[in-house]
Amino acid sequence: MLCRSRELPLEDVAYYVNRKGAKRAILSCLGLSLGFFLFAIFVPPYIGENEGLSSVLEVIARVTGIAGTIAFTVLGLVFLRRLLSRDPYLVISEGGVFDNASGMWSGAGQIDWREIADIRLSRYQGLPCVELVPENREQFLQRFGWMERINRSLRLGYPAAAIRGPLLPVEPDVLAEQMREYRRSALDT
Fold first, then answer.
1. Distances (CA, A) of 110 to 38, 77, 162, 166
2. Residue 173 CA to its chain's centroid (Å)
3. Which residues pair with 15 in a beta bridge?
4. What string of H, E and C letters represents the secondary structure of the chain?
């Protein structure tokens, strides 16, 4: 919990990408991309050599390998972009949160504290995260591009804004408490 005098305003806090976590994520994506690439090259001919296995399985194996290669290459590029960016990953201020962290390519941008109904710790895909629960989810999602809106709508149970992952430079419980303190301060004035 942050301790401060009621008379002193809170200063903005900017967090930048955890560089070590970003590098680890990039290497993981490159390894997985290479694995799927090798799968696409070596597994389909093996399937074709065995009698009784259909050529449909060969096509499925090749498509799976190519799709995995593309997906993990794109994800690696996302992490590389985050690593090279000089922009803050997250800024907490008395006016709200500047979120550059919750989406694939970017975050939700500036979020006023009045737009947030709750700040809670949760887990998504096994990773701890700080979830910003919007007052109006549909209105909140309009701030994202059409691809990100579709992505968030198709994933059941995905929070509107979840700040998580290997790029987070601070423990989620510390970040959540810090956000709650700023929100309380802003809404009390």
1. 42, 24, 14, 22
2. 17
3. 90
4. CCCCCCCCCCCCEEECCCHHHHHHHHHHHHHHHHHHHHHHHHHHHHHHHCCCCCHHHHHHHHHHHHHHHHHHHHHHHHHHHHHHCCCCCEEEECCEEEECCCCCCCCCEEEEHHHEEEEEEEEECCEEEEEEEECCHHHHHCCCCHHHHHHHHHCCCCCCEEEECCCCCCCHHHHHHHHHHHHHHHHHC
What global pTM score does this model have? Answer: 0.72
pLDDT digits (tens, 9 = 90+) for 172-182: 889 999 999 99
Whose tokens are 């994506």? That residue is: 29
